[in-house]
Amino acid sequence: METLRIDGNTRLLVMTGAGVSAESGIPTFRGSDGLWENHPVEQVASPEGFHADPALVWRFYSQRRTGARPCVPNPGHLAIAEWEQMLGDRFLLATQNVDGLHRLAGNQRLVELHGNLFTTRCTRCERPPFEDRLAYPEGTVPLCGQCGGRLRPNIVWFGEPLDSRDLLQVGDFLRRDDTRLVFMAVGTSGAVWPAAGFVDTARKSGGETWLVNAEPAENTGRFHHFIQGRSGEVLPKLVTFE
Ligand code: BV8
Ligand code: ZN
Q1: Catalytic residue among 39, 51, 102, 114
Q2: What average pLDDT does range 86-104 have in this prediction?
Q3: Which residues, chain by chain, have CB under 5 Å from ion ligand 2?
Q4: Residues 216-234: pLDDT tens digits?
């Protein structure tokens, strides 16, 4: 297998998707052909879906909380955490995943592009998002203790903008000019924007681009290197530090 050599003059941006958590037992989106209880995920994970049937959406997220709670980081997560240890501020991780496993593995230089499954926020008042590991009972919609407004999962749904501070942090890292850039996508089908476009920004910045995925992704052709395999097996052997 090809290996990636990282020296003192290289910075690394890693972007992960659901595939990096598959070996931890968390189902991917495309693996379940994008359906949940016969609802297209895009419909349930959307403001329209929440407006139409908030109890259904809370059932979807409560079930995912129950499913994800016992899961632990796998060797792929642990390898990425080690890379941060080795590189410090020459490392950044942008994840599309909401399962919290990268933080559990020890990553701190982390941008959760699509939010976090275990945080909830109020749709009405300015209360900041708060830690919430509860799976709510069937048919209920939790209300805010401070204003009585409806609570929602603190997740970026389809049709909602990503946090501009997150996008700025990723953009600034990609456009730094003090080191050589390597961009690595892991376990993502490259179907969801704007994350799917980061590889193009990386290439425009002269970056070397790598994809580690179980199967070819929609944007495989835009990567200089493609390693087909399971991230839990590939990542621990992929990088050598000089
Ligand atoms: C926005 C939270 C605008 C939900 C998620 C047409 C063109 C361009 C864009 C669009 C378009 N139509 C609509 C859009 C916009 C839309 C979009 O991209 N839609 C897609 C479907 C076409 N994007 C948005 O809506 C974004 N917002 O554009 O806003 C805007 C701007 C200003 C003002 C107002 C509005 C918001 C996108 C965020 C949506 N939320 N998550 C939740 O999680 O509940 S996205 C959701 O999909 C997950 O976060 C997930 O991470 C993400 C992407 O999926 P992947 O992570 O890639 O997972 P997937 O299953 O697809 O693939 C897994 C891969 O792993 C597979 O390839 C598999 O082979 C591989 N694998 C499996 N096992 C392993 C493995 N690899 C390695 N090892 C293994 N063991
Ligand atoms: Zn409130």
Answers
A1: 114
A2: 98
A3: 122, 124-125, 127, 144, 146-147, 149
A4: 988 899 999 999 999 999 9
